[in-house]
Amino acid sequence: METPSDRVPLAERVEQLLAEEGPLPIVAAGHPVLRRPSVPYDGQLDDALLARFVQALRVTMRTAPGVGLAAPQVGVGLRIAVIEDPAPVPEEVRVARGREPQPFRVLVNPAYEAVGTERAAFFEGCLSVPGYQAVVARHAVVRLTAQDERGQALDEEFTGWPARIVQHETDHLDGTLYLDRAELRSLSCNAAAARYWGQPTAGDAARALGFELP
């Protein structure tokens, strides 16, 4: 289904978004843009507009707060995402989840592939599906290829939680939400997740809610 914004050129759509001060509005599940493959970035925005858009994504991600944000989450169907994770978690969580701090970076036209067959399952949430979390089994190690905002090639392996972030955000650019990959028996509102499933791993949730881990 076409929406009014679909008929607006991408550069004009971005200019309209940036006309407002503060963080960009994040669209929620049900918006068509979240279910469409994004258009590869090939210069639709001039350098100045791209820089402004990237900065707006950064501000929006930090304000939410989140550890990643894809352009479709603010209604722009371009293959661009940003990630950043200061990883302010207890040591046992850091070790169990492989959660290491990640600097801010821009991913343009990213794609990932699994490295090996190992998978890891943890609770995961999404800024476009507010209020809920679910367990998602993802590749433990992935190879990411992309460009940065200056057009420099990226080719890097990610492990642990950073690999999860990369997969989550790249999935957004393919029209995939984390719920498509989730164990739905684990679906929990944030309050229930905090009350019952705050452990570093998803083992207790799997046993209590009746699903299997990889």
UniProtKB/TrEMBL annotation:
Domain of life per record: Bacteria
- Asked whether the keyword Protein biosynthesis is assigned, the reply is yes
Q: What InterPro entries does the record point to? A: Peptide_deformylase, Peptide_deformylase_sf
- Can you tell me which residues form the catalytic site? 169
Give the top-level enzyme category.
hydrolase
The UniProt note on the cofactor reads as follows: Binds 1 Fe(2+) ion.
- CDD domains assigned to the protein according to its UniProt record, in alphabetical order: Pep_deformylase
Binding site residues for Fe cation:
126, 168, 172
Q: What cofactor requirement does the entry state?
A: Fe(2+)
Q: Which UniProt keywords apply?
A: Hydrolase, Iron, Metal-binding, Protein biosynthesis
Question: What is the recorded function of this protein according to its Swiss-Prot or TrEMBL entry?
Answer: Removes the formyl group from the N-terminal Met of newly synthesized proteins. Requires at least a dipeptide for an efficient rate of reaction. N-terminal L-methionine is a prerequisite for activity but the enzyme has broad specificity at other positions.
Database matches in NCBIfam families? PRK00150.1-3
Q: Which HAMAP family match?
A: Pep_deformylase
Family note: Belongs to the polypeptide deformylase family.
Protein's recorded name? Peptide deformylase
Naturally occurring in which organism (per UniProt): Streptomyces werraensis
**Gene that codes for this?**
def
